């Protein structure tokens, strides 16, 4: 099964000049979703991870399935103001400005071995911020895991100190 057959290019979304990689067809096909989870999980049992962190919002979709497949807990990393209780925040740079990600302070315990998951690695800013959040909580990032990687944006340079796994490269 070729997973790229289930990813649709949407030109000029969300703005002119961007080609959005829509994973909705993959999610709508149970066999393609199962295959993606199987491939994303390959080799992860060796890490003895304790948690999967999914990055808002498309990282939640396969991230929770990956966590269930591996029998691990799932922790969401969200945009500011979306999580209750004590939170930890991490700013990161955008092309034109700054944004932030947040995690609940008690969701990662010191020594937790964590897999970071998102649907796409683009410029690397959100993945880097998620890694920093996990480390602020005392966790250890054992792998950054992506369905797709946009190689031309060189996002892996921001997280090159971590082990990376991307299923599809564009």
Automatic annotation (TrEMBL):
One Gene Ontology cellular component annotation held by this UniProt entry: cytoplasm
Gene3D superfamilies found in the cross-reference section: 3.40.50.2020
GO BP field: adenine salvage; AMP salvage; purine ribonucleoside salvage
Keywords from UniProt, A to Z, are: Cytoplasm, Glycosyltransferase, Purine salvage, Transferase
Transferase keyword on record: yes
Q: Where in the cell is it found?
A: Cytoplasm
Subunit structure, as described in the record:
Homodimer.
The job of this chain, per UniProt, is described as: Catalyzes a salvage reaction resulting in the formation of AMP, that is energically less costly than de novo synthesis.
Q: What is this protein called?
A: Adenine phosphoribosyltransferase
This protein's encoding gene: apt
